[in-house]
Design goal:
It is a single chain. This protein is of the alpha+beta class and about 675 residues long. The protein has 24 helices and 10 strands. Strands 1, 2, 3, 4, 5, 6, 7 and 10 form an 8-stranded mixed beta sheet that branches. It has a two-stranded antiparallel ribbon with strand order 8-9. The chain is globular and about 80 Å long. The termini are far apart.
Length: about 675
């Protein structure tokens, strides 16, 4: 029975059997039997015992709160289910019982209800397996869940002693542990370190008594534990890697990722990236972070290609035989900026077309096109320089935000916009609500594509500095130098003969080609938020389309204007999405940006010391750009709960920075000097 399986998962076997026996006796008169319900023994004595020899482990996912703030709810649960599922397998293998999971903390015990003289060793083996498993699993999940997933780690604490355990009856019966041992184990976790396992002296003594003194090393500093004072604790050494498995390597803190960044003036590009042929999840252990991000971007773009092909009836063969000639001439004007248009005319689909559209999941883009997509993205990644901030990882972070906001546009409804990705979307109803963005997958593909390529070859200094230095690109483009250069490079590479099958998936008519080009140009140009002419144009259009005093009409051009504005605000918000996410994410990327700017100053590529005004500058950036932008996301009316989420984080981060920012900037300077001295 399904009920038996659920009960077995919730209670240890011995407790489960006693629970069944008690419940069955109490249900003879009324014929009712519900071991998970509130009866819990028909008013009889509680099922509880004192267990004198147990070992308890707490394992907390470090960085989870920040990571989950940038993810969709379904992605959060995929992560937890996958990780906890792997832990459950190892708990069973080591005869350890999972007590519960509280948010991102996994709690387990050995030594009850059946005595186990080796309870300390069992839990320690289990904990070491979990740390290694966490590393392996997050590397694999980064391919499907995106940037920063591999930066998640465990912080583990273990303590041994007596505990009271039993079935806590109530609305939902649960097996619970109580007592000082439980509390101390929790303290061992909270005072532990990232990717480390801290054990108490009691647990360490048990290991030594069993002949495993080589498993532990004393912690150099004592730990203060509430209610106990200073305690001498021990580190449990990582287990030796199994033959053929990836050796354990500690990973950097999400708030300190920049410690491995190179502080060059941005002259070098990312190391050579190799596209993985016939990709398999088992390959992730030997892939670099950039290669895993390439695979994630492949997984983001592939479904959009399926949707594009579905929107044209499954046709992947170009209808226009002269298309290659058109490809050779488009975008060959004087500059990219000259192609910018105030309003992008989007393609419209009538209700009959939308209702008959083929399911995208049934479309196969083909191995050739997918291989070309993977190779193209690998080459894009290699064109990013080794900047602390403007790099391929940041481009992927921007892409993750674009993906999230686009999902909210597509999935928004009369409720709160939380429909699951598997739900069927009524495109007929949605087309009007989103000004046509949801009905045209080429529009969505173009915006995501633009996010991926928007900082290619970024030199790590602002456009004004490039113009001042009179670089080759500045001589060509005059302004919006980095943005125009990125479009030129990405487009030239895409037009290469080796990506012919990929291009056939993206467009198959001249109209599609021109619309794709226009969307890419406008979207990437929107990331230049300094150009005053573009700023004035955007402000004027906003007043026309969305301001409370504007005159609204139902014309097609009005919808195109609104769609253009929505696209621009989507990419702009995503480009600074770290300011509208969890504090740790904001602080991490802010630090990287500071390091990039300060390195440029030290290299003589900036007139003023950025540290002098960084604190006040960030407050101004929040007050005059980030928070107003977040409010406009809400005013657009198409982003569901994400607009509120982004605004709340922006305001919270602004307030936190106002309180802590001056000290943080001082820490940045110290860290920069430390990193510089280590490189010399």
């Amino acid at each position: 029975m399904r009920q038996d399986q659920i009960v077995s998962n919730v209670f240890p076997a011995a407790i489960r059997d006693r629970l069944y026996e008690t419940e069955q006796k109490g249900s003879k008169e009324d014929g009712l039997f519900d071991p998970l319900g509130g009866g819990g023994g028909a008013g009889g004595a509680p099922l509880a015992d004192l267990f004198l020899e147990t070992t308890i482990v707490f394992a907390d996912i470090v960085g989870f709160t920040a990571w989950s703030s940038a993810r969709e709810p379904a992605e959060v649960f995929i992560l937890l289910e996958t990780i906890y599922g792997e832990f459950d397998k190892r708990a069973y293998r080591h005869n350890v019982f999972k007590v519960e999971t509280v948010g991102d903390c996994y709690v387990a015990v050995a030594g009850l209800p059946e005595p186990d003289k080796d309870h300390a060793m069992a839990v320690c083996r289990f904990a070491r397996d979990c740390v290694q498993t966490m590393t392996d699993t997050t590397l694999k999940l980064e391919v499907s869940l995106g940037p920063d997933t591999s930066e998640l780690d465990l912080r583990v604490g273990i303590h041994s002693g007596q505990v009271t355990a039993g079935v806590l009856r109530g609305e939902r019966s649960r097996f619970q542990l109580f007592g000082d041992t439980m509390n101390t184990a929790a303290r061992m976790e909270s005072t532990s370190a990232r990717n480390r396992i801290q054990v108490s002296r009691v647990t360490a003594d048990l290991l030594v008594a069993s002949g495993f003194s080589n498993w532990i090393a004393p912690r150099t500093n004592t730990v203060f534990v509430k209610g106990k004072g200073e305690m001498q604790t021990y580190w449990l050494k990582p287990r030796a890697s199994a033959k053929g498995s990836k050796p354990f390597q500690p990973k950097s803190d999400i708030a300190n990722l920049d410690e491995t960044a190179e502080l060059s003036e941005g002259s070098g590009r990312t190391s050579e990236i190799h596209a993985v042929e016939n990709f398999d999840l088992d390959d992730t252990g030997v892939m670099s972070k950039t290669e895993r991000l390439v695979e994630w971007n492949v997984e983001v773009l592939s479904p959009l290609l399926q949707q594009i092909i579905a929107s044209r009836g499954g046709d992947v063969v170009p209808k226009d035989p002269s298309l290659p000639k058109k490809e050779a001439t488009i975008g060959t004007g004087e500059t990219v900026l000259e192609e910018f248009v105030p309003i992008i005319p989007l393609k419209r689909f009538d209700a009959a077309e939308l209702s008959k559209r083929q399911k995208a999941s049934s479309i196969d883009i083909g191995d050739k096109a997918k291989t070309q997509l993977r190779n193209y993205l690998a080459n894009v990644a290699s064109m990013y320089r080794d900047n602390p901030f403007h790099n391929f990882e940041h481009a992927s972070h921007v892409t993750a935000s674009v993906k999230k906001l686009l999902t909210r546009i597509v999935n928004v409804d009369d409720g709160n916009g939380l429909r699951t990705p598997s739900d069927e979307i009524d495109l007929v109803d949605m087309a009007g609500h989103s000004y046509g963005i949801t009905s045209d997958p080429l529009t969505q593909f173009s915006v995501v594509f633009s996010a991926i390529i928007h900082d290619m070859d970024h030199p790590g200094v602002p456009n004004a500095q490039l113009v001042k230095e009179n670089t080759r690109d500045a001589q060509i483009f005059k302004k919006s130098v980095a943005e125009q250069n990125s479009v030129d490079l990405a487009w030239s590479m895409l037009m290469d003969k080796e990506y012919e099958a990929l291009r056939a998936c993206i467009y198959h008519t001249e109209d599609d080609l021109r619309r794709f080009r226009q969307l890419v140009v406008n979207t990437v140009m929107a990331t230049d938020i300094v150009d005053k002419e573009l700023q004035a144009l955007r402000k004027a259009r906003w007043e026309t389309a969305f301001a409370e005093t504007s005159v609204q009409d139902d014309s097609l051009s009005s919808d195109d204007c609104k769609a253009t504005i929505v696209i621009e605000h989507l990419i702009q918000a995503s480009d600074v999405s770290h300011t509208m996410q969890h504090w740790q994410i904001y602080k991490s990327w802010n630090e990287k940006f500071f390091m990039e700017c300060y390195a440029a100053y030290k290299a003589g590529r900036a007139d003023s010391d950025p540290s002098k005004n960084w604190y006040k500058g960030e407050i101004g950036f929040f007050d005059f750009y980030v928070i107003p932008l977040a409010k406009k996301l809400d005013s657009c009316g198409v982003f569901g709960v994400s607009s509120h989420e982004y605004l709340n984080y922006a305001q919270s981060n602004r307030d936190e920075w106002a309180r802590e920012g001056e000290g943080i900037v001082s820490d940045y300077l110290v860290k920069f000097e430390d990193m510089t001295s280590k490189q010399q």
